Amino acid sequence: MADLSSNFVGIKSPNPFWLASAPPTDKEYNVRRAYEAGWGGVVWKTLGEAGPPIVNVNGPRYGAIWGADRRLLGLNNIELITDRPLEVNLREIKQVKRDYPDRALVVSLMVPCEEAAWKAILPLVEETGTDGVELNFGCPHGMSERGMGSAVGQVPEYIEMVTRWVKQNSRMPCIVKLTPNITDIRKPAEAAKRGGADAVSLINTINSITSVNLDSFSPEPSIDGKGAHGGYCGPAVKPIALSMVSEIARGEATRGLPISGIGGVTTWRDAAEFMALGAGNVQVCTAAMTYGFKVVQEMISGLSEYLDDKGIALSDLVGRAVPNVTDWQYLNLNYVTKARIDPASCIKCGRCYAACEDTSHQAILMKEGRVFEVDDSECVACNLCIDVCPVEGCITMEPLAKGATDPRTGAVVGDYANWTTHPNNPMARAAE
Amino acid sequence: MSNTPLTPGVVPGRLAASALAENFSDIAPPLDRHEAQVAADRCYFCYDAPCTVACPTSIDIPLFIRQIATGTAEAAGRTILSQNILGGMCARVCPTETLCEEVCVRETAEGKPVEIGRLQRFATDVVMAKGGHPFARAAATGKRIAVVGAGPAGLSCAHRLAMLGHDVVLFDGRPKAGGLNEFGIAAYKAVEGFAQAEVDWLLHIGGIEVETGKRLGRDLTLEALKAEFDAVFLGIGLAGVNALRAEGEGRAQVRDAVDFIADLRQTADLGALAVGRDVVVIGGGMTAVDAAVQSKLLGAETVTIVYRRGADRMGASGYERELAASKGVRILTNATPIRVHGGDTVESVEFAYTEDGPGGLTLSSETFRLKADQVFKAIGQKLDGAPEALKIEGGKIATDAAGRTSVAGVWAGGDCALGGDDLTVTAVAQGRDAALDIHAALVG
Ligand SMILES: Cc1cc2nc3c(=O)[nH]c(=O)nc-3n(C[C@H](O)[C@H](O)[C@H](O)COP(=O)(O)OP(=O)(O)OC[C@H]3O[C@@H](n4cnc5c(N)ncnc54)[C@H](O)[C@@H]3O)c2cc1C
Ligand SMILES: Cc1cc2nc3c(=O)[nH]c(=O)nc-3n(C[C@H](O)[C@H](O)[C@H](O)COP(=O)(O)O)c2cc1C
Ligand code: SF4
Question: Is A166 helix (H, G, I), strand (E, B) or coil?
Answer without folding.
Answer: helix
